[in-house]
Amino acid sequence: MATETPTAVERLRITEIFHSIQGEADAIGWRTVFVRLTGCPLRCVWCDTEYSFYGGNWRDIDDILAEVASHGAKHVCVTGGEPLAQKRCLTLLQKLCDAGYEVSLETSGAIDVSTVDPRVRKVMDLKAPDSGESKRNLWSNLDHLLAHDQVKIVIASRADYEWARNAVAEHAIDQRCMVLFSPVHGAVEPRALAEWIIEDKLPVRFQLQLHKLLWNDAPGH
Ligand code: SF4
């Protein structure tokens, strides 16, 4: 049986590495280097990064670190796809933390996050029904969230909103960490979502994706 070489153990399949402005979550507005890992086992209806499902290039983790360093940013966001679908993502996260970066991880909520380095700020989705993937929510992940983490729920309809509102209340998610509600571009009026949140006095943070306003979601931003 073939065994992996030591070099192979340290490689990840990467769709892109780029330098931009963080468009969402707690670190919004910071100049950030994004490391987008290839592949995702989910297929959310409204996914805006389908180009990351396939392809990509195998890159040594040390090579990734060198490219990240070349941009001179304090913040690094590891994203996808679903970055945790590649097990060596955990090594990348650890090495980025060791190098002194402020590291965030965007993850679908469908894969166990218990072994993620605790220095990493996890931005973890919970998938509402209109995503088509809510059955994939790994609810035990809520027990592994730290105070600096964030739960993000992307909302495509009033029904999604009510699901999200109930999930937050039922699991007291706001008492674990920050909760973000974000409208699906073109599916729910941002103002309507904002007004629902106000009307129900929810303990959540409304957000619009800054990069969509700035660059209309073009790859590389
Ligand atoms: S988990 Fe993220 S990358 Fe995967 S299909 Fe859903 S939105 Fe797209």
From TrEMBL:
Q: Name one GO biological process term.
A: tRNA queuosine(34) biosynthetic process
What are the GO MF terms of this UniProt record?
Answer: 4 iron, 4 sulfur cluster binding; carbon-nitrogen lyase activity; magnesium ion binding; S-adenosyl-L-methionine binding
Instruction: Report the top EC class in one word.
Output: lyase
Enumerate the UniProt keywords alphabetically: 4Fe-4S, Iron, Iron-sulfur, Lyase, Magnesium, Metal-binding, Queuosine biosynthesis, S-adenosyl-L-methionine
Q: Identify the residues that bind [4Fe-4S] cluster.
A: C40, C44, C47
What InterPro entries does the record point to? 7-CO-7-deazaguanine_synth-like (IPR024924), Aldolase_TIM (IPR013785), rSAM (IPR007197), rSAM_QueE_gams (IPR027621), rSAM_sf (IPR058240)
Record-annotated residues binding substrate? Answer: I21, Q22, G23, R36, T79
Subunit structure of this chain's protein: Homodimer.
Q: Which family does it belong to?
A: Belongs to the radical SAM superfamily. 7-carboxy-7-deazaguanine synthase family.
Q: Which HAMAP family match?
A: QueE
Function recorded in the entry: Catalyzes the complex heterocyclic radical-mediated conversion of 6-carboxy-5,6,7,8-tetrahydropterin (CPH4) to 7-carboxy-7-deazaguanine (CDG), a step common to the biosynthetic pathways of all 7-deazapurine-containing compounds.
Q: What is this protein called?
A: 7-carboxy-7-deazaguanine synthase
